[in-house]
Amino acid sequence: MHIGPPLQFTAVTDHSEFLAETQICTTPGMPGYTSSTCQTYRNNPTLAFALFGLRLTSQNPTRFTFCSQPGVDCSGVARTTWQRVQDAADDANDPCNFTALSAYEWTGTTDLDNFHRNVVFRGTQLPTQPTSYFEAPTPQDLWSRLFLDCQSGNRDCDVLAIPHNSNASGGNMFVPENPDGSPLSAAQANFRARMEPLVEIYQHKGDSECLPGIFAGEEECGFEKLGGIQQGAGYVRNALEEGLRQQRSIGANPFKLGIIASTDTHNASPGAVDENRWEGHLGNTESSPEQRLSNGAFSPGGLAAVWATSNTRDGVFDALARRETYGTSGPRIAVRMFGGWDYPDDLCNSATLVEDGYAGGVPMGADLTSRPNGNARPRIVVAATWDPGHDIAGVGDGYAPRDGTRLERIQIVKAWVDGFGITRERVYDIAGQVSNAQVDTNTCAPTPTGAEHLCAVWEDPTFNANAPAFYYARVLEEPSCRWDAFECIDAGITCGGSVPREYRYCCNGTDLTVQERAWTSPVWYTP
Amino acid sequence: MKKLLADPMLRYLVVGVGLFLVFGDLVDDGRAPIEVSAGYVDGLAMLESERLGRAPTEAERQQLVDRHVEEEALYREAIAMGLDEGDVIVRRRLIQKMRFLLDDAIVTEPPSQAELTEHLTANVERFARPARLGFEHRFFVPDRPDAFVADAKAKLVAQQEIVSDPFLLTGLTLRDVSTTEITRTFGRDMVEGLADAPLDVWWGPVRSRYGRHLIRVTSRTEPGAPSLEDPAVRAQVLRSLTEQRHAADVRAAVGAIVSSYPTSRPEVPPTTVAQVQR
After folding, report:
1. In angstroms, rounded to a whole number, what is the distance separating the alpha carbons of residues A304 and A521?
2. Do residues A98 and A6 touch, judged by C-beta distance below 8 A?
3. CB contacts < 8 Å between A and B, how many?
4. Cβ separation B169–A334 shorter than 8 A
5. pLDDT for A416-474, tens place per residue?
6. Band of the pLDDT at B278, cuts 50, 70, 90?
């Protein structure tokens, strides 16, 4: 398979829980290979997926009993496999050309709520034993172990954890308390923010930005929702807002989260985000159009972007740690955001916008500098450039160039805590305009409207110097065809005639368009 | 009677009926019951919640169990009837599993330094590092008229201030970047434009994926001969040679399995020109 332009960085990551078990069950002759669990693993993949997954839902998780049979060494095999993950990353890492980070996914799914985190490392002395749900059944246990195994002492090791799929956490991903229900201390809140500076806002299994509702959210919150009963508290915007309330009540913000997006691919195909050639992300359960179309809420997922000083492990990791990041729902939209107090109105016309942005304020992911005088209001500059599509040729069979979709709008999402301690939010359109462009899902021809470049300097019209606040930018493309529209076209479906059952989604009024977007990390104001 | 039994069709029939009479009851009684434990249902529910993004309702759980029992019964019946035999999909899947197993199980010896050198020498072009460039640029969005860009160029040559547009992806000055990186960021046109430009002269406009740029190339490093001293080259060569060898080892293992079977193959007649053309 081929993706469009090559990626510039990635993380090599696998679920840490079964690094050993899957290795043992697939290696003839290894102690444990003939165990009944391994036989099930080989003979009934569906059941095995369930049985293995089930191990990750208990509050007191234990490894399979075959791991404690004489001669079977699951810890040892996990160490070896983790070393292989690191070797693969080391092999692919090519400083200044391509960065590959070593990582794994901690897969806590307590009581079926998704608490998964991608754990990303930097350094030459990574912990030899990966931490899994079995050793660390709560996120707090995970952070403590990571801190002890990696960051304490003088090891050449650094680590951060990135929660993902919080939309499937039953509203429990961002609870501002300890596992025993006690409130967070400032130290605990700061520790969490240090271990988890980022969150994944969108991926294969849907959007986690915000939930549309009667009392909260706005129309754009309807983007790529997974469906089912949802809890607002599992969404990123709610977490960021809870962070502001915590800031006010305990003087520290546990949810100071920068933003990325990713695929969450399970096919080892990072960056496979093109709507027009998606092959699924869950192995053989998503390998046919029928399987994909019957789980229509899933999608190719997005990309993580960093503003790094160099394309090296240090450069990329530093950018992640300082939250100078943004996520996109797939397209390579470029977006810059800076917050300050006195950016000039004509900054968008300056060839040195980026340099001036850094010089006169802070980039996405940072705290605004202190207010210079009693009249100053935050000024935010956001500049975005479209993804012009793929023009890289000669990348082999099955490669389909893709036209770019132009930009529709830049928005600023602001939230703050009012005098009653209640969080409020507001969305401002600051550049571009609402388009009523129609997409022809029979041809998927690119939408001709929109802008290649958008930029605006915006001043907060409702600034209250006593209210903690954050601002992040959302950049919307014009609407375009969603992956299911391409599936329908590829299959030659003509609505009106007889349509094969598996393609009924093509013609039953399902919306086959998507409005792709980018979300920046916020900048924060703290009184 | 003897003559009757000489008819193969009838013989099979008689034997089949006999077998049924002897074992028919036994098969019925000996059927392992389809048992669905509570833990298994939890497992199915887990799978379903992965798919739904929420826990399944009671009714959905019931459906999962019913569907599973049905599938299990059909699966067993199919195996009992030997439907897996000669099925092209089952056959293909088993072969695939076998190849996966071999691929994982076969350990390929790491190549020696001399072998790496040999592999590199034989494939110098493939492992060559890209050319590197340093350059300055000024960016113009597509809306800017050509005359505006031409005027800006004249001013740059005369070392005067100009107005140009912000470019978000890089700074105005790039030092020592590879053509691979330039292609990735700006597109191929830009690399070609940069290749044409003389050193230290404002040049252009050249086209990128985003608009037009005036450029001034400040340094140019042609691709050097790749060397194993370069850790990135070494890693690439090592990976390439190891993969090549591993593939050969797997082929050899497949060959060993094949030759463990006595086989008789028909003579393949030589292909005629007419057949090829058809």
Report:
1. 11
2. yes
3. 121
4. yes
5. 999 888 999 999 999 999 988 889 999 998 888 999 999 999 999 999 999 999 999 99
6. very low
Residue B19 has pLDDT above 90, yes or no: no
DSSP per position, A106-127: E---GGG----EEEEEEES---
Do B101 and A297 make contact, defined as CB atoms within 8 angstroms?
A: no
Rounded Cα–Cα distance for residues A473 and A454 (Å): 12
pLDDT of residue B51: 66
Q: Which long-range contacts (CB under 8 A, 24 or more apart) does A433-441 make?
A: A433/A408, A433/A409, A434/A408, A434/A409, A435/A408, A435/A409, A435/A478, A435/A479, A437/A408, A437/A478, A437/A479, A438/A479, A439/A479, A439/A480, A439/A481, A439/A485, A439/A513, A441/A481, A441/A485, A441/A488, A441/A489, A441/A512, A441/A513
Largest CA distance in chain A: 74
With an 8 Å Cβ cutoff, are B168 and A383 in contact? yes
> How confident is residue A332, by pLDDT bands cut at 50, 70 and 90?
very high
The amino acid that residue A299 corresponds to is S
Chain A residues closer than 8 Å to B168 by CB: 334-336, 353-354, 383-385
> How far is residue A33's CA from residue A77's CA, in Å, rounded to a whole number?
13
Residues of chain A neighbouring B190 (CB-CB closer than 8 A): none
The ipTM assigned to this model is 0.81
Contacts with B, A 307-336, CB within 8 Å: 311, 334-336
What lies within 8 Å, CB to CB, of A169 at 6+ separation is A113, A114, A115, A231, A234
Structure tokens at A484: 């299911």
pLDDT of residue B275: 57
Q: Could you say which residues from 136 to 175 on chain B have a Cβ atom under 8 Å away from some Cβ of chain A?
A: 138-139, 141-142, 162-169, 171-172
- Give residue-wise pLDDT tens across range A152-187: 888 999 999 999 999 999 899 999 999 999 999 999
Pairing of strands B202-207, B212-221: antiparallel
Q: What residues does A524 pair with on adjacent strands?
A: A367, A470
Q: pTM value?
A: 0.82
Q: 3-class secondary structure for A12-49?
A: ECCECCCHHHHHHHCCCCCCCCCCHHHHHHHHCHHHHH
Percent of chain B at pLDDT exceeding 90: 46
Structure tokens that stand for A146 in this block: 């990571």
B105 part of contact set with chain A, CB < 8 Å? yes
Grouping H, G, I as helix, E, B as strand and the rest as coil, residue A139 is helix
Strand-pairing partners, residue A99, are A9
Contact A351 B139 (CB under 8 A): yes
